[in-house]
UniProtKB/TrEMBL annotation:
Domain of life of the organism encoding this protein: Bacteria
Magnesium as UniProt keyword: yes
Molecular function terms, GO-annotated: metal ion binding; transferase activity
Reaction(s) catalysed by this chain's protein: L-threonyl-[protein] + FAD = FMN-L-threonyl-[protein] + AMP + H(+)
Entries under PANTHER family matching the protein: FAD:PROTEIN FMN TRANSFERASE (PTHR30040:SF2), THIAMINE BIOSYNTHESIS LIPOPROTEIN APBE (PTHR30040)
Protein name listed in UniProt: FAD:protein FMN transferase
């Protein structure tokens, strides 16, 4: 059995498929279908496309409900559950905060600007009955960016399995789904990015199957008066996280679950994150601001 590798770009990220197959034709077909699935999900849920379901829901904010397809309904149900189980920290309405946060500017928004936009944030302001969704306030928005890539990784892995791939790995910009180990049973060795030295790994995690996702304060940030402000915003306050870990990596049966776990752990902060992840029985790796690595 031979390993075949495929690279492509999607969701503003470098992506790679590593598939084991007896014949190149099998791997090539699986890769073609998986890439098409990732691009389909990107087009369906991109807030940058006027014809996406997300854009149609957002355009109707304050006007009337929008009926959705079964896939979108399942993702909205997941978002509702994640909101409840995270005590409101995982909130797909919080993307609207980008209107006042520009991490390229090097300038903090005013307290009044944040106060003005917070009324547009809150899943509790959304009317969702399982078939139709209404954003009750004009100007509200949904943003699937916090879990769309993870969903795409899981979906691409499912497509590969259906195409006959038993061993392989899907990586979409650091969000990973392992369909199984290497054919000899050895795990994939996944390098975890050092949050302060992005060209190097701070740890290596073995992964035989399931999802792995990371979140950290290193992706987009700015430093103002010596204080680091990350792009990870608390939907309750409108402000970036403070007193949190520099990075969190989580392993779960699905990349979707791993990604949500990592994001919420960052928002929970150093005191609560470990207990919360332990309560969910999700393996994790945490990087403290001083570089200390804490692994479950």
């Amino acid at each position: 059995m031979k390993e075949f590798r495929y690279s492509f770009s999607a969701m503003a990220s470098p992506c790679e498929l590593r598939l084991y197959a007896e014949r190149a034709s099998v791997a090539n077909k699986a890769a073609e279908l998986a890439q098409a699935e990732v691009l389909r999900i990107e087009q369906t849920y991109s807030r940058y496309r006027d014809d996406s379901i997300v854009s149609r829901i957002n355009a109707a904010a304050g006007l009337g409900p929008i009926a959705v397809d079964p896939e979108t309904a399942a993702l909205l149900n997941y978002a509702a559950t994640a909101y409840q189980q995270s005590d409101g920290l995982f909130d797909i309405t919080s993307g609207v905060l980008r209107r006042v946060w520009d991490f390229k500017s090097g300038q903090l928004p005013s307290d009044s600007a944040i106060a003005d936009i917070l009324p547009l944030v809150g899943w509790d302001k959304v009317h969702w009955d399982g078939q139709q969704i209404l954003l009750t306030q004009p100007g509200m928005q949904l943003d699937f960016g916090g879990f769309g890539k993870e969903w795409a990784a899981d979906s691409a892995a499912r497509i590969c399995r259906e195409a006959g791939i038993e061993y392989g790995l899907v990586e979409l910009g650091g969000d990973i789904h392992a369909m199984g180990p290497h054919p000899d049973g050895s795990p994939w060795q996944i390098g975890i990015r050092h949050p302060r030295d992005p060209e190097n790994a701070i740890a290596v995690l073995p992964l035989k199957s399931g999802g792995l996702a990371s979140s950290g304060d290193y992706e987009r940030f700015m430093v103002v008066d010596g204080q680091r402000y990350s792009h990870i915003l608390n939907p309750k306050t409108g402000w970036p996280i403070t007193e949190s870990f520099s990075a969190v990596s989580v392993v779960a049966p699905l990349c979707l679950l791993a990604g949500t776990g990592a994001t919420v752990a960052m928002l929970k902060g150093q005191v609560e994150a470990r207990n919360w992840l332990n309560s969910l029985e999700l393996p994790f790796l945490l990087v403290a601001p001083d570089g200390q690595v804490i692994q479950s």
